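Hello,

Our lab assistant flagged a job as stuck in the queue for most of the afternoon. It eventually completed. Since we weren't sure the result was trustworthy after the delay, we are filing this so someone can double-check. Below is the sequence as submitted and the structure that was eventually returned. Let us know if re-running is recommended.
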Amino acid sequence: MAGKGEWARHWRYERLPGLDLLRANYLRHTFPRHSHDGYVIGAVTRGVEAVGMPGGTLQAGPGSVVMINPEVAHTAKAGGPDGWAYSTLYPAADVVAEIAAEITTVRGTAGFAEPIVMDPQASRLITEVHRAAEQGNALAADSLLRVALARLLRDHGTALGARPGRSAGAGAASRARELLEERMTDPPSLEVLAAELGSSPFALLRAFRDAYGMPPHTWLTNARVRAARRLLESGTAPADAAVAVGFTDQPHLNRHFTRIVGVPPGAYQRERKNVQDREAHLLVPSGTWQNRHHPPTYEQPTGLRPGTPPSTPQEPAGPKPPWSVTRSGSASPWVSPDSPSE
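-- returned structure --
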């Protein structure tokens, strides 16, 4: 791809409630272990995405669809030197439940049996949802969304299993989570937390990881980012949101928010403020993405690498999102290396 660069747009189309959209081209960005309260449904359109699931790391290339159920801990990074591009849908749980109730016989909570499937038609439908939303075509976007979800539920849907019984370890993990939510801005140490619950630090660590797919400190960072998203959506300034959820300062929030959500908090909030102004296309270079607006400039991906099967979908035509351009000679300044600590 000429003029290699990373770009991303995470936004919401006001006429499709209950849905977030992310379209991005990542080269070096790495998503640390995290989870979502809704579903993740992504169509890889270029390169390879390596998705770390509880059972191991899986590779997703063009024409494949990544499907992650709510609260499943996972990671994501480039599966090759050229990075990956994708169009992702984040439907809320009630959106999927409504469609599942209408077109499937699944009893209980509907989900997806496999995290990655090769389905070029479904992949193409997902990219077309993005294109229709970017063009402001609510009828097409809503129709395509429902068709895509119906297809995936019909072909790959299943009933999600109930959570494991409340063993002593599971009960301690659940209570630990509640305490961390209550004390998000001033969490206790693992030793103190375990003592309060009548457990040992290592026993609590194992129980928490078994229940939520990540250790308590990683889960807490994820929970803080979720809380910050809600505050940013309500109009809270990033600096105030950072302190409110327990981050040291705005740069601390910026680092973790960008790694988990895929865009910086300022860009995330700006998209929500501009959700009714689809004509505004703001290019904001990665080094100053937080605070500066620039005239619209677009860098078009050149499509698939030689040898890609013709059936795989390419990036949709139509309006391109605002993005940050990072030249291949240096890493994106808003991407931080993964680390196990805050």
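-- support follow-up --
The delay was a queue issue, not a problem with the job. The result is valid. The chain is about 35% helix and 20% strand. The mean pLDDT is 83.
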